[in-house]
Amino acid sequence: MSAPVLVIGEALVDIVSAGSKKNGNGNGKPKATPGGSPANVAVGLARLGVPTSLVTRFGTDPYGDQLGAHLFGNGVQLAPGSVDPGFRTSTATAKLDAAGVASYQFDITWEPPALSLSRGCPAVHTGSIATLLEPGATAIREFLGSLADQPVTVTLDPNARPTITPDPVSTWAAVRELAALSDLVKLSDEDCEFLQPGQSPESIAVELLSAPRTQCVVITRGGEGALAISREGRIDVTAPKIDVVDTVGAGDSFMAALIAGLNSHSLLSAARLAGLTSDSLRDVVDYAVKAAAITCTRHGADPPTAAEHTATWGA
């Protein structure tokens, strides 16, 4: 890999509320941890040994210092302009239900620094709030549009947040537009239910695959695993049985491992998933499902390293 994977999107601090015994403290007090879906993906990629650069924006306040230390400590490069002394670092307050599933309330502003593609960049990933919250959403959409003729693989995880974009009709229209600019789209079953209520995940995947560029749609199903539909066909992967602590960051760990798996199969960059077979897709999705499972066994958005993945599930 001649240049890092480029990840674009929000970095913020998750504040897990005091109401849960599973907040990682053991004392019922709120806990602040680095988060933001794209930032989690960047950390997950770096931990899996994939060089990664993140375009984001946060301040130099205490939360921003916490984010910076976390990202640098995990080997994530920060693009110029990502740390802004005049910016107030965004936060998300997470509440966990009895099963450890998180819901969020956000205090966020999103306006990224200038977006550009470095020479040799194999993949660009974006998603979540950054792709839907203005003014940054327009900047991302225009940037992805400029990559049409570039030898780079584009991946998208909408990671729908109804508290930010409560109207599913307009949100789905925006997701469709971004998906058409992407080679691979990852959704959760919760995304599907919010964006296209009453529609099956399979029908949603087929609709997204009608765009000429989109080659694959992967849909996660929590403890049931994941399904992927490509131009080669459909594959289903079952999730391993685990004791769930919480699900915070599990989808982001899945996304990071999905990109890392595609990279290990030499399917990024100019290939744009052109060599994606059903067998290689099954390997990649299985790798991603198992990465997410590890994250669910510990507190917060804590994606596994490559060594942890191998030690837990084997090579």
UniProtKB/TrEMBL annotation:
Enzyme Commission number(s): 2.7.1.4
Chain segments annotated as coiled-coil in the UniProt record: none
Family: Belongs to the carbohydrate kinase PfkB family.
Keywords carried by this UniProt record: ATP-binding, Kinase, Nucleotide-binding, Transferase
Region feature (Disordered): 19-38
InterPro entries: Carboh/pur_kinase_PfkB_CS, PfkB_Carbo_kinase, PfkB_dom, Ribokinase-like
Lineage of source species: Bacteria, Bacillati, Actinomycetota, Actinomycetes, Propionibacteriales
Origin superkingdom: Bacteria
Protein name: Carbohydrate kinase
Residues annotated as domain Carbohydrate kinase PfkB: 5-304
GO MF: ATP binding; fructokinase activity
PROSITE patterns attached to this UniProt entry: PFKB_KINASES_1 (PS00583), PFKB_KINASES_2 (PS00584)
